[in-house]
Amino acid sequence: MASSRRKISWDLVRAGCVVLVMLYHSTSLSTWLHPEFDPRPLTFPFQVGASMLLVVSAYFACVTIGRGSMLKYWWGRVARLLPSFLAAVVVIFLLLRLFPIDGWFYPELRDLRANLLMLWHWKPQDYWFIDGSHWTVPLQLMGFTAASLLYASRWGHGKRMIAVMWTAVLLPLLQWPIRVDTPPETYRMLVDGFGLHRWHLFIAGVAIWMWSTRRIGDGHFAGLLVACMTAQAFHNYANTPDGLVADWGSTIAVWIGICVLAVVARGPDWDRVIPLRAQRAVTWFAGISYGVFLMHQAVGYVVMRKLQDHGFGPGFQVLGMLLVGTLLGWALTKVVEKPAHRFLMKPFQPKPDRVAA
């Protein structure tokens, strides 16, 4: 598959999704997890950014999967995601122990081991997140692995691929009544461990790519998107003592986000409407966005609490979290992500004698 020119519109999407995650964590989730925080005059209460990043990951998996061997593709994704994640877990663990907050989660060595092994989805009652943002990492790794296996087989092409996509959306959707009605622990562990209730986000990304490259028609694309949006709506229901409660704000935000991604994928680049200086800033932030995503939340809450203890108001607290998250994300990208990726991809680089020939 031929490579395409980098589009500023996709950089803006990546950067925007991470900013939405940071705003949600700093203005809304922070006060829910830690009620002692001062109330925020402005909040962003929608869980949308991380879900959209999964859609974007699936889209670009389709864009890049035909370049080179399947082993190189799969290893390239692992080399990009895993070293930064492992480093982030260790750094956050050390920072939380160096700057403890009375009454807050204080991680032990068993927590470090569990987080390095990504055990939270399997046994959340036993294994706590060191940083809650990390929930997407195992899902992305499983998604890239599934994409590689499918593409290398007959099931990753043509009508068989269409059947796989519909099954991946409808099967978890049909099981939704079991999921929200206190299911057996083994069932819950498998469903949450493999992220069945989020498969529709990956399918949405694949569907957007197929529609943008004219591999499916408008009607088929609309049907897939409606199915994915329905699955997202059911996913955002929670079983509470007062009955089922829906988070329609987050659901509609994801619906809008999926439509925006479809427009970006099918439409022209936005380079003519975004000033050059802004393009450079967006591209820079998009380049460190994975590191920012990994590093901002848990450490950011400590920063906000320290600022509050020293008399700074909610606005300065949110700004402090955004700045520290960006700085730590930049450092993680510079020190770990890029060097580790270059090192791990060396076996797939052409040998000097072949290059000379």
Give an overview of the whole structure.
- There is one protein chain.
- With 357 residues, the protein is mainly alpha-helical.
- 68% of the residues lie in helices and 2% in strands.
- Strands 1-2 form a two-stranded antiparallel ribbon.
- Strand 1 and strand 2 form a beta hairpin.
- Helix 2 runs parallel beside helix 5.
- The longest helix has 31 residues.
- It is globular and about 60 Å long.
- The mean pLDDT is 93.
Concise summary:
The chain is built from 16 helices and two strands. It has 357 residues and is mostly helical.
Secondary-structure blueprint:
Elements: H1 8-33, H2 49-64, H3 70-98, H4 109-116, H5 136-151, H6 158-174, H7 176-179, H8 185-193, H9 199-212, H10 218-235, E1 237-240, E2 243-246, H11 248-266, H12 276-287, H13 289-295, H14 297-309, H15 314-344, H16 352-356
Antiparallel strand pairs: 1-2
Helix pairs in contact: 1-2, 1-12, 1-13, 1-15, 2-5, 2-9, 2-11, 3-5, 3-13, 3-15, 6-9, 6-10, 9-10, 9-11, 10-11, 13-15, 14-15
